[in-house]
Write a structure and sequence with these properties.
- The protein is 30% helix and 25% strand.
- The protein has 132 residues and is of the alpha/beta class.
- The chain has a single domain, classed as 60s Ribosomal Protein L30, Chain: A (2-Layer Sandwich), CATH 3.30.1330.40.
- A 5-stranded mixed β-sheet has the order 3-2-4-1-5, covered by helices on one side.
- Its EC number is 5.4.99.5.
């Protein structure tokens, strides 16, 4: 089954190192938490808010071993008024047997507020696993 694995993060500044570092952090967490192998990925879409233009966040993916041939595209988000600033969003399209409700979508830093429902569910699942 082809599934989308979603995540978002924020950076402190429109600086190349900050963009690459925070994107790499998000990608590695999504990959680790969902057991994603690059050979199972059909494509990756990375978007940034309009205030981020110092670097292509896709460069962070190129630091991952084995991800050289995975197609990735960077785009700009819709400039919605009052939207979260300095935000990087990632969508990984991967083949997986993991049921949709078990996919670990990750929201880091100020992006945690984008999907509080998923954050609460993740915490409940962690507590359930700890209790077992």
């Amino acid at each position: 089954m082809l599934r989308g694995v979603r995540g978002a993060t924020t950076v402190n500044s429109n600086e190349p190192d900050d963009i690459i570092e925070k994107t790499y952090e998000l990608l590695t967490l999504l990959i680790d938490k969902n057991g994603i192998q690059p050979t199972d990925v059909s494509s990756v879409i990375i978007t940034v808010t309009t205030d981020l233009n110092a670097e292509f966040p896709a460069k962070a993916m190129r630091k991952l071993k084995g991800w050289t041939y995975v197609p990735v595209m960077c785009m700009t988000e819709i400039p919605v008024p009052h939207a979260l600033e300095k935000c990087i969003r990632v969508m990984i399209h991967t083949n997986t047997d993991i049921p949709q409700h078990e996919i670990a979508h990750m929201y880091l830093h100020k992006a945690k507020g984008l999907r509080p429902d998923l954050e609460e569910e993740r915490k409940r699942n962690e507590m359930d696993q700890t209790a077992e």
